[in-house]
Specification:
Length: 162
Amino acid sequence: MSTKKDTFFSLVPDDSPLQVEGEREVMLPGMSLEILATRKINLTKWNLEKLNDPYWRLYCPVEGRAVVTISEIETELLPGNLYLIPPRTTISSQNPEPFSKWYVHFILGRSDLLSVPGIYAHPLDPVAEALLETLANAKGEPYNWESASLVIHALGKLPSEA
């Protein structure tokens, strides 16, 4: 009795002495996460005009006021919230007073092609607060797992339409 081999995805080469038999019950696509920058920044002026970048932005305001405009819709960035802005979203910004924020710029590889431009906000929760506190004490460590954890946590809060 011959069974058709599923060649869509296998980590075991055909000529391998290893044997793997069974049926795939779940298969999730691969994903990559590349953190481009993680910073806390204190801004006296933050005036962007129709900026459009190929990477995600995660903003976490700490204090002060700022506004991001996307397609003529203004969103005030408020402390106590996380804001995700997908790649290829054209944004403008201004801050009427000094403004402090954490931000992460990142790329999700092929998944970026599926993102919908906009701004997606949700309140800080205890998990995000703990990650931000750890980031504040990181002092330039070479591997910033908290930054990746914060991004993954925020992405998990995205609505399905994003």
